[in-house]
Design goal:
Chain A: It is found in: Membrane. Chain A: Keywords: Membrane, Transmembrane, Transmembrane helix. The complex is a heterodimer of chains A (208) and B (487). Chain A is mainly alpha-helical. Chain A is 82% helix and 0% strand. Chain A contains eight helices and no strands. In chain A, helix 3 crosses helix 4, helix 3 packs parallel to helix 6 and helix 5 packs antiparallel against helix 7. The termini of chain A are far apart. Chain B is an alpha+beta fold. Chain B folds into three domains: 341 residues, TolB, C-terminal domain (Neuraminidase, 6 Propeller), CATH 2.120.10.30; 66 residues, Tetratricopeptide repeat domain (Serine Threonine Protein Phosphatase 5, Tetratricopeptide repeat), CATH 1.25.40.10; 28 residues. Chain B has a four-stranded antiparallel sheet with strand order 3-27-26-25. In chain B, strands 4-5-6-7 form a four-stranded antiparallel sheet, with no helix packed on it. The radius of gyration of chain B is 31 Å and the shape is elongated. Chain B starts with a helix and ends in a 7-residue tail after the last helix. The chains are: A mainly alpha (208), B alpha+beta (487).
């Protein structure tokens, strides 16, 4: 079991179709959930450490604008947005995936970003400006790999055809945009209601 | 109650003293950077800086003993520090020495046996041979006088196919290069500067500004009819607002662009070759409120070592940049105190001092360097000359006075790099956010470290390989013996 905790995620990222099949049908969901949360945490950690400790030639960073908590939010919120949007769309379009499966598949897809970016935090300290192209290339590979895994995961979890998966992924991104818009609208309205109530309260207090 | 207060009186007194002293101390610290002097950090934030220049004297025409100035519009200072003031309202040129003692007043000249005068001249230039070029705007001509103020030639309205038939020649600024070519900035000309040869014949236009097209405006223009379109504004390039020429014959010019580059350095072909490798391209203020907008630069003055200064008429500030485009210092402002102006119109350097001409008030303000300004000027000069040791010392002195001056660290870093102290150089380049030079220093540093620890690293690698091989051999032999394998 403990050994599996490490080997299975790596098995998934190098054998995505088999791996995701195992993830959906053979694995215990609690196990998947633990791995997913660990991956999310590690990704946030990689981003935070990357912002702080990456070499100067690849990382111009302003310590005044660095916020570890926000880095955490930048990881967790997009993932949750993606999962919610994807789940909402696929339930309407005969997808077979449950929410938990979508979430774990997405988190497993993030593993290459952690695995590739983390060593580069330290490696970037010993490279020169000419060698930064290796850095950029590795990062590009990590993101392409991530997108491919996202695609494979979606396809396996929902049992879609390749074309339909691509369509769903594009629609999911659009749905994320809608969700962001609606959340902003909601927050600004709530803010205004709160401000309104505060003003009324103040008015009452001042008069009495 | 009263007793207890009385008892604690010494304590109270002490507290008051402490409070007072902190506020006084704060005021003293604040006075040093009184808000008119600042610099921009790499991140575009304003950082307070000590004043580089301070206003020391204020002169008007009556103080100088030549009668009040009336709307003076241009200044020029020669290499031997003679100051030429163009007193447009009185149609005369006043020449002062470096101590502001009047030498000469020119209000007329003799042309082909006849006395001639100026009419509302706007621009003035004096060559290294003390020949005077005057943009005699009211008479639609440019007058060239020699060093004895004798008439040499007049440049009249040019006749060219490039100009419209009803074109009115209104020169406002002039310069002349070493080869006696005259460059004229005229109102209503959008094609750049007019270039005249030594005989005063029109040759060409150089350095036209580019047209800025507002996308919204462009959209409306596309969907409107011909009749509507003719009522709209035309897209025309902005006019230049000022020009100056350096010792090598490059023209420095400012224009009224709101977008894009409002300072240009033109070569003989009219191509902009200004280096913009500072944290921001030279443009005056980069932080401003949207209702006042960006700086409007109306005068430029180029001095030695490629340093140049521009005058912002909107906020009355004078910005100075070095040849790489790093922002060095700013001073001035609009107001009523000394060192502030109402309608600043021209700036010039007299040695290291600045003189600023105020058009409406007819006054000349003199700014002298502070210790900080002097050190910074000298540091930039020695850096430009390639005198690394001197630059190192002076830049160090500068950052002792202003730790926020980020580009100074790059200067220190470069001389450290030359001296072979790569690690310190890296530290300084990092402070000035200079990735290129950091990388250079880092490569050298890496090589040095590698060389130093090569023996150790190789020993470690060989040892690890030997142990690994040993383990493999042991496993193999134990497996052959039929022992239990690890896997």
């Amino acid at each position: 079991m403990n050994r599996e905790l490490v080997t299975f995620p790596f098995h998934v990222i190098v054998h995505p179709f088999n791996g995701y099949w195992d993830l959906k049908y053979d694995r215990d969901q609690k196990f998947n959930l633990i791995v997913s949360c660990v991956v999310l945490f590690l990704l946030a950690l990689t981003n935070i450490l990357g912002a702080q400790y990456s070499g100067f030639v690849v990382n111009l960073y302003n310590p005044n604008e660095m916020n570890s908590l926000l880095e955490l939010v930048y990881v967790v919120v997009p993932v949750l947005f993606w999962c919610v949007a994807n789940w909402s769309l696929t339930t309407l379009m005969d997808g077979e995936g449950k929410f938990i499966e979508i979430f774990t598949a997405t988190c497993y897809a993030l593993i290459p970003i952690v695995v590739i970016n983390f060593p580069w935090i330290w490696l970037s300290n010993v490279i020169s400006l000419q060698e930064t192209s290796f850095y950029a290339f590795s990062h590009a590979v990590a993101y392409l790999w991530f997108i491919f895994l996202l695609f494979a995961g979606n396809m396996t979890v929902h049992q879609f055809s390749a074309g339909k998966t691509l369509g769903i992924m594009v629609l999911t991104v659009i749905a994320m945009g809608f969700m962001a818009f609606i959340s902003l609208l909601f927050f600004s309205l709530v803010q205004q209601i709160i401000a309104f109530i505060t003003v009324i309260y103040q008015e009452l207090v001042m008069r009495s | 109650m009263l007793k207890s207060i009385l008892k604690s009186r010494p304590l109270l007194l002490l507290a008051i003293c402490c409070l007072l002293s902190t506020t006084l101390g704060g005021a003293a610290a604040y006075a040093e950077g009184d808000g008119t002097s600042y610099n921009y950090s790499f991140w575009g934030r304003t950082a307070a800086a000590p004043a580089a220049y301070q206003a020391t004297d204020l002169y008007n025409g009556s103080d100088l003993g030549v009668g009040a100035f009336k709307e003076p519009s241009d200044l020029h200072v020669t290499t031997d520090n003679r100051i030429y003031v163009l007193d447009s309202g009185n149609n005369r040129i006043v020449i002062l020495d470096e101590h502001f003692k009047p030498i000469e007043v020119i209000d007329s000249f003799v042309r082909e046996g006849q006395a001639d005068t100026f009419a509302k001249p706007q621009g003035l230039f004096v060559t290294d041979q003390n020949e005077i070029i005057i943009a005699d705007t009211g008479h639609n001509r440019v007058v060239h006088l020699d060093s004895e103020f004798r008439w040499v030639k007049t440049i009249e309205a040019p006749k060219s196919d490039l100009l419209q038939a009803n074109y009115q020649f209104q020169p406002v600024r002039v310069v002349m290069d070493q080869a006696q070519r005259t460059y004229v900035m005229a109102t209503g000309v959008f094609d750049g500067f007019m270039e005249f040869n030594a005989q005063g014949d029109f040759t060409s236009f150089i350095g036209a500004n580019r047209v800025y097209i507002d996308p919204v405006e462009y959209f409306w223009k596309q969907i409107s009819t011909q009749a509507q379109r003719s009522q709209m504004l035309m897209f025309t390039p902005t006019e230049f607002t000022s020009l100056d020429i350096d010792g090598e014959g490059f023209i420095y010019a400012t224009n009224g662009d709101q977008w894009g580059d409002n300072i240009k350095k033109l070569n003989a072909q009219g191509t902009d070759i200004l280096r913009r490798s500072g944290y921001f391209s030279p443009q005056g203020d980069i932080r401003y409120t949207s209702d006042t907008g960006p700086s409007r630069l109306i005068d430029i003055d180029i001095t030695d070592s490629e340093m140049y200064s521009v005058l912002d008429s909107k906020r009355g500030r004078i910005f100075t940049y070095n040849g790489d485009g790093h922002f060095m210092y700013v001073f001035g402002g609009l107001g009523n105190r000394i060192g502030e102006f109402k309608t600043p119109t021209a700036i010039e350097r007299v040695g290291d001092d600045f003189i600023v001409l105020d058009k409406a008030l007819g006054e000349i303000t003199v700014f002298k360097t502070t210790a900080y300004g002097r050190t910074l000027n000298d540091a930039v000069r020695s850096y430009y000359r390639g005198d690394e040791k001197q630059a190192f010392r002076l830049f160090n002195e500068t950052i002792n006075m202003n730790a926020n001056l980020e580009f100074a660290y790059a200067g220190i870093g470069k001389s450290l790099l030359r001296q072979g102290d790569y690690k310190e150089a890296m530290k300084h380049f990092k402070r000035s956010m200079d990735q290129n030079n950091y990388s250079k220093a880092f490569l050298l540093y890496r090589k040095e470290v590698m060389r130093q620890y090569f023996g150790f690293i190789m020993t470690a690698v060989v040892t690890i390989a030997a142990i690994w091989a040993g383990v493999l051999a042991y496993r193999k032999s134990s497996r052959r013996k039929g022992g239990i394998s690890f896997e």
